[in-house]
Design brief:
Elements: H1 17-37, H2 41-60, H3 65-91
Helix pairs in contact: 1-3, 2-3
C-alpha cells in the first residue's frame, strides 16, 4: 500500500512558461551588463527594484501557488528587461545625447 504524498500531484503550469522566464532573466542580465558599461548603475538598480515590485504583486495575488510563482518570475524578469532596454536606447552613445558631439574614431590627415 502506497501513502499519498503532496508531491504526487502534477503541477498545472505549462512547460512553456518556465523557459520564458529564463529567457527574460538572461536577457535582463545581458542588458544589465550593457547598462553597467554605460555607467548606468543606478538605472540598473531601479529596473531590478521594479522587477521585484512586479514579482511581489503577482506572488501575493490570489490563485494557485505554482502558477503565481512562475508567472511572477517571468513577469518580473520581463519588466527588468524592458526597463533596461529603454535605458540602453535612451543613453546609448549612438542614439542618445552624445550622438551630435561624436568624434571620429580615427584621426584624419587634416587634424
Amino acid at each position: 500500500m502506497r501513502a499519498e504524498s503532496a508531491y504526487d500531484e502534477q503541477p498545472r503550469v505549462t512547460q512553456r512558461s518556465t523557459p520564458r522566464g529564463r529567457l527574460c532573466y538572461l536577457l535582463a542580465m545581458v542588458l544589465g551588463q550593457g547598462a553597467m558599461a554605460l555607467a548606468r548603475h543606478r538605472d540598473q538598480l531601479l529596473s531590478w527594484l521594479a522587477g521585484v515590485a512586479v514579482r511581489a504583486v503577482i506572488t501575493t495575488a490570489p490563485g494557485e501557488v505554482t502558477v503565481r510563482v512562475v508567472t511572477a518570475y517571468a513577469a518580473g524578469c520581463a519588466t527588468v528587461a524592458v526597463v533596461l532596454a529603454i535605458v540602453l536606447v535612451r543613453h546609448s552613445p549612438i542614439t542618445g545625447q552624445h550622438a551630435r558631439r561624436r568624434a571620429p574614431a580615427w584621426p584624419t590627415a587634416n587634424q
